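Input protein
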Amino acid sequence: MRTPMSWSTRALFLWGSVLALCCLVPVCKCLQNETRNVTFDIGQEFNIKCGENGQTKGKSFFWIKDGVKSNKNSKISRASDAGIYTCVGPNKTSFKINVLVRHEVSAVSASGEICPLDERSPDTKCLNIHEGGDATLWCNATDGYPKPDVKWFIRLEEEDRDIDLGIEGALFIRNISYHCDSLFVCKVGNYLNRNRKSQIEAGIKVFVGRKPNVIITTRIDGKQKDQNVLSICENNEISFNCSVNTHPPPEEIRWIVNKDHVIFWNATHSRIENSSFSGSPFCASNIDNIITEAPAKTEALRYVSITWGFISMDCVESLECEATNRFGRGRKTQKLTKGNCTS
């Protein structure tokens, strides 16, 4: 004979049922609204039915993608067919699928800037790193599924071959050595690219250098003088040479003559020119006697010399050489004073 449940037991049973129902409802709701991934190949039939029990009932059920009604009863034709599809039916019931389309990588983006004209080439960026500096090189696919691999190489252009660095993902450079220029190449692709031998490459030219180290050497009447302050006479023939041996070569070397006014000579790979001078006619005439010399256009810009056949201390008290490259600017000043001169 079964013993009837007491009121307290019944209450506990009912309360437990309510709790179980409350716990199950959100779980069921989550399962109903869960978005599942469905992967297709390009050219494959879109075989996911939108409707009750997988059956489409006229126009009662339809797919929506990106807010637009989609008649997806055809093939996956391109990579852009990927995305979230929502099946909408009567009473606003719906479920979602995330369509993934397998396709190869067709383009990549890489770190660095557009290279100077003399270094420019397709699919190659340039990156300047100061001596002893750090840098992170990255290379990202702009498309492609499944997720592609990124592998790094150093290209030996003289030998026309690549050395595998055994590094994937980002390439970290630490405390890079001076004059350690290299062409790094990232090769990007997934298994589709590998099967079709269509991996995408991007190059990053790394230039390592320092700002110019400027040296001024002076010759007075043919004899070299190395002094912070030079004692000169107006009848001396003086040659000032500004040289820069730092890598990379300067893009510009400038001589600046200081007194009450400033005149300067700008030397680049293609020209050497002087500024206008607004001082006295005497100083203008005196400065016009300066002869400048620079390397030929086909050579690296490593020096600029100025020679003064007759210098007037009323027109100059110091000369400064300033050189600029992609890593910064360097300066050196040569001070002048009037010597104990005899006529």
User: Anything to note?
Assistant: Confidence is low (pLDDT under 50) at residues 7-32. The helical segments are 7-33, 191-196, 281-287. DSSP finds three helices and 26 strands in the chain. The chain has three domains: 36-102, 108-209, 214-338.
